[in-house]
TrEMBL record:
The lineage of its organism: Eukaryota, Metazoa, Ecdysozoa, Arthropoda, Hexapoda. Residues 291-339 are annotated as: Disordered. This is F-box domain-containing protein. Residues 294-304 have a biased composition (Polar residues). It comes from the Eukaryota. Residues 311-321 have a biased composition (Basic and acidic residues).
Amino acid sequence: MVLKMPKRKYDQKLVSPARATFFDLPIYDVVVTVIAKYLSWYDLYSFSLCSKRCKDIADCMLAKGLDRVTIYGDGKYNLSPYRTIIQTSMRLRSVVLQHMDKLNNDICQKFLTNNLYLEEVKMYSCQAISSDGLLPLRSCTNLTKLSLSRMPIDQKFFKAFNEINNNLVEVNITDLNINAEELREFLAHQPHLEKITIALRDTNIKPCLVELPSLCPKMKYLDIHNAYYTPDVHDILKNLPDNCPKLTKICLSKDEFGYEDEMLIHIINKNCEVALREPDEYDAQEETYVPTFDTESSHSNSSTDPDDLVDSDRGELHFGDELTIEPTKTRHHDGESSE
């Protein structure tokens, strides 16, 4: 006699289910919220080229998961990568753009309008962007750090910006089309500033500097390298530590002041650190002045300020004619560079 075993229903515990893939992960709860923050914009762009499904997921991560981007241009652009970022991203908190010569006003306006949650904006040598291209920054009410260098920006932008946004904590104004009086007017509407960098060549900064203690009572750091110094400006600088009780560091041009300058010695004796650097090298490392005589408190060499090394964001990417990845060189304090 032959016994037949009864048929058993499908048992999931005995049969291994199909192996899950990346595409089976919850898009928002995992891919956007968790995974996207560990990827650079270039990773997401490269992923979007794999398939249409990958592009849909990458666009979602770019729009809702990417919160910071740093792009370096070199004059040879593959337009698609950065246009993808500009057209897709909507939740950026931090933007750093350098030498983006083909980034014009229209593209910049669209980019900034899509990212109203920005907290930090740094732009260096983006020559095609004028005041009109930056006007959407007025609506970025979370913006606290603004750095603009070597661009055709004039009073039009700063006047419009002050009408809505008065929350800046850090500002860097280097080689823009404004004079000292216009700069003073801008600073007068930014009472929360703690870190100020001003580099205006051939401009007498006295009208701005003389009122700085009352305009910016919270100021802790002042960098006025590459400025036009006059004897009366020296006297103002000498008295700044007394007039700005929260001031802890001043950065000046190395060619204007010597290591044993009486004014520097006076400032250091007021427990305020002094740094000197080359006047024409905005990307150069500061050299902290350390006195060789006894003072009430000792000062040690400080690390380079992030604003002074505009290409120091390690791991960020350059792009040129092809979709190739080039490692950014990292500057060390000893002057050497490494891949």
